[in-house]
């Protein structure tokens, strides 16, 4: 800016130097012509001003270019943040939707338990009234019996009194059983109430202000990133007219199952491909009621097999210990029965447990021995011949037989 002011100040001087000779010609006689080198000095002054003006413009252009680059960098950062926020918002919406569904189910069960408790309380009150009336009758009969004993010492007890006493004892036993069932129902009601409170707490934690539809749908340049997998998904399938919840699916090897302990707890994969629901979700589901575990296997000859178990699953503190008892099926020895099977991965194992994932790949429920079965191992094609490579794949081995290669597997559960 200083250069421009200097140039504006120099130009009038040059113009004045050119105009003065002409004006003087009207006032006096012509004098000797000035030297031509005086004009050259004016030109140099003018050129110097133009040069300084060019340097000033060049500096201004560089500063403006730097400011524009900073603006573009900030816009790119804003695009990245907005895109990440959109992805995170969609994930939280899915989790909130699942929690709301679970809450509604628990509320329905809570209402059923409350209704059952009211009915039991009503029956208990009626039985207590009957017990009170019977006790009054028994006291009256006892008084009569005492009088009879006093009047006729050594006489036998009347049969009516004996039958009445046995009836009263039966009623007492019935009341005790009913009280015990009421206590159990009350405990279940308390557990349901605690679960509802816990889910409501999770809903409050995950609750965020949802962006408006226009803001999410506005056109913004998405960064070149790959969106993460949607993990928090469940699927209900219909088999034999009953709903099943899918917890594991292997079919083509598109998903790497040699994951960490943290991912096996949270879940990974997609429902329309290979999928693992997650140990935390499986544990939360099976704690609501008594569930059945169903394994479905298909070999490379497309022969299908299945087995169903009644089972119990422990919490995180027990390494999700699995205990099964076979109910039905045609896969002998698919899982060891009546024993504690602890879940482990390549980066997590229980104290004193063999390190099976190191040799067999994937996360699975193992006992004190390895090699009986592993449905979360590496997906191998039939051409795999080496024994070590086969053991790292998904397989089932019946008792005292060779490894049985698996083409696809499914694990489902239902009440």
UniProtKB/TrEMBL annotation:
From the UniProt record, list the coiled-coil ranges.
92-202
Give GO cellular component annotations, separated by semicolons: extracellular space
Entry keyword set: Coiled coil, Signal
Please give the residue ranges the record annotates as the region Disordered: 202-241
Q: Which residues form the Fibrinogen C-terminal domain?
A: 190-415
Q: What InterPro entries would the database entry show?
A: Fibrinogen-like_C, Fibrinogen_a/b/g_C_1, Fibrinogen_a/b/g_C_dom, Fibrinogen_C-term_domain
Please name the SMART domains in this protein's record: FBG
The identity of this protein, by name, is Angiopoietin-like 3
């Amino acid at each position: 800016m200083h250069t421009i002011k200097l140039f504006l100040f120099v130009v009038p001087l040059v113009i004045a130097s050119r105009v003065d000779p002409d004006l003087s010609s009207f006032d006096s006689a012509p004098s000797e012509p000035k030297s031509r080198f005086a004009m050259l000095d004016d030109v140099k002054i003018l050129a110097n001003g133009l040069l300084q003006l060019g340097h000033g413009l060049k500096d201004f252009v560089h500063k403006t270019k730097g400011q524009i680059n900073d603006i573009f960098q900030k816009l790119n950062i804003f695009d990245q943040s907005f895109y990440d926020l959109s992805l995170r918002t969609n994930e939280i919406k899915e989790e909130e939707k699942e929690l709301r569904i679970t809450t509604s189910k628990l509320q329905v069960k809570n209402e059923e338990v409350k209704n059952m408790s009211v009915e039991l309380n009503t029956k208990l009150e009626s039985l207590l009234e009957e017990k009170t009336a019977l006790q009054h009758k028994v006291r009256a009969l006892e008084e009569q019996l005492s009088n009879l004993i006093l009047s006729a010492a050594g006489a036998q007890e009347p049969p009516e009194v004996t039958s009445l006493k046995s009836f009263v004892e039966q009623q007492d036993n019935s009341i005790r059983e009913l009280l015990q069932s009421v206590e159990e129902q009350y405990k279940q009601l308390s557990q349901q109430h605690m679960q509802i409170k816990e889910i409501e707490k999770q809903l409050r934690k995950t609750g965020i202000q949802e962006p408006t539809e226009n803001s999410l749908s506005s056109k913004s340049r998405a960064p070149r990133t790959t969106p993460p997998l949607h993990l928090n998904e469940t699927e209900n399938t219909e088999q034999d007219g009953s709903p099943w919840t899918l917890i594991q699916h292997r079919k083509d090897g598109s998903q790497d199952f040699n994951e960490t302990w943290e991912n096996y707890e949270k879940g990974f994969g997609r429902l329309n491909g290979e999928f693992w629901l997650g140990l935390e979700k499986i544990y939360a589901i099976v704690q609501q009621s008594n569930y059945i575990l169903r394994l479905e296997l298909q070999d490379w000859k497309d022969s299908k097999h299945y087995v169903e178990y009644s089972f119990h699953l422990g919490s995180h503190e027990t390494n999700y210990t699995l205990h099964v008892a076979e109910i039905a099926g045609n896969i002998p020895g698919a899982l060891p029965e009546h024993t504690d099977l602890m879940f482990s991965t390549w980066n997590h194992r229980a104290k004193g447990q063999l390190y099976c994932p190191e040799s067999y790949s994937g996360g699975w429920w193992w006992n004190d021995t390895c090699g009986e079965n592993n449905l979360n191992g590496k997906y191998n094609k039939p051409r795999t011949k080496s024994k070590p490579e086969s053991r790292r794949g998904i397989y089932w081995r019946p008792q005292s037989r060779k490894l049985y290669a698996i083409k696809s597997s499914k694990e489902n559960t239902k009440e």
